[in-house]
Amino acid sequence: MPERSCISAAAGLILTLAGAASAGIVKGPYLQNLTDSAIVVRWETSTRQPGIVEYGLTTGYGSEVSHPDSTFDHELALAGLIPDTLYHYRTISGADTSSDAIFRSRVLPQTPFRFVVFGDPHGDSATNQQVANRMAQVNPEPALAASTGDLTGNGRYASWRIFFNNQRALLVRAPFFSAPGNHDYDSIANWHRFLAQPGNELYFSFRNGNASFHCLNAYDPFTPGSSQYNWFLQELQQDSANPDVRHIFVLVHTPPYSTNTVYSGNNLIRQHLCPLFERFGVRIVFSGHVHAYEHSLVNGVHYITTGGGGATLATSWNQAQPWTVRREAVYEFVVVDIDGATVTSRAIRANGTEFDTLVLTSTAVTENPPAAPPTPGFSCNPNPFRSGGTTITLTTPEPTELTVFDAGGRLAPFTITTGPRPGTVSLRPGSAPPGLYFCVVRQPALHAAIPLILTR
């Protein structure tokens, strides 16, 4: 996928669509549950009416599905879709017809595609609308939209109306999936009423292109032996055995790693699920709950908290940890591009500026042997450091290999020498410019990385 801008000034045309629905259609239409040959269209009307969806390859449509019963909440599946194809559609209820909208059916494994991720859009409706408007301006358009949960602050009907109306310009054309958050449990009945997701709608998997996505439920048991754990392990094993799957992404509401003062991280996820993330090479784990952005790197897995969807920001931080890559209390969302073996993640503020970019390249998803329980193997001091360098102290005398990479995954020109004391290694930055680097430490029982911050 060639380099391209995430935001288009011409996207005001998309926003015009958001206000184009007939007065009788009070919510939607929005798209859900994209599969290899089908998609679900949902909408709500102000009075009980039957429903029709017309769809096809042009605005002439040519195909339709319908339900004859009169209802407020409408749900129709469009089946027999051609993969990787642009479709037009519109909804009809009585005399009310939505504007023409488009979506792309599930893309093929070799096709590049884009998706957006956001979290915690509840709270101030105006702020959430700013983030939603910016996501609607993403260009090229995303093939999917995903959330880490807390779509509303109280689960009430009025709050769901606000959410869908704010997000309409995006969700009318991007199939939407979400993991549940704690506030979504304030009325789990409305979660099931307004969403049409795979499986039990609380933890499930879906695919697009060469990527597999797993939405987990942080509020249902996930320890070894539980139904959710066994299901997740089986899904990961199937990903590993499928040559079409090259990237795995996870969405779960509570982050396992956090340095924000409002939440210190979910230790149960660290203990029971992070070993699976590492074992099966999950690319990125997306979370919310903390109303801020934080990017962490632990044992090769990137953890991104994207909780800046509209709720009041959590602006207070504890001391940064060795796994901290970037953190900022800001309204934001994440755009992810997948092109073959390459994953590019960009964090976007509500004003459209980018502030954290991650590029990952990998050949395939493979299952690694279960990792041994994590053991602290080294420390780094000072960090951040200047041109004089820093010292790595190893806690075990085993044979050790150290390598330093820049944030783009390229080998960095650091000089690595034996330190002045037993078990220490000196790192000198040489010609490396100031910025973020990663020191990878390999021992027989340890493979870990620590961020290095070189300042001027």
UniProtKB/TrEMBL annotation:
InterPro entries to which the protein is assigned, alphabetical: Calcineurin-like_PHP, Metallo-depent_PP-like, PAPs-like, Purple_acid_Pase-like_N
Domain Calcineurin-like phosphoesterase: 113-293
Record-linked Pfam families: Metallophos
Top-level division of the source organism's lineage: Bacteria
Transmembrane segments: none
Coiled-coil residue spans: none
Keywords carried by this UniProt record: Signal
Claim: Transport is one of the keywords in the record: no
Keyword Signal assigned: yes
GO molecular function: acid phosphatase activity; metal ion binding
Signal peptide coordinates: 1-23
UniProt name for this protein: Calcineurin-like phosphoesterase domain-containing protein
Species in which this protein is naturally found: candidate division WOR-3 bacterium
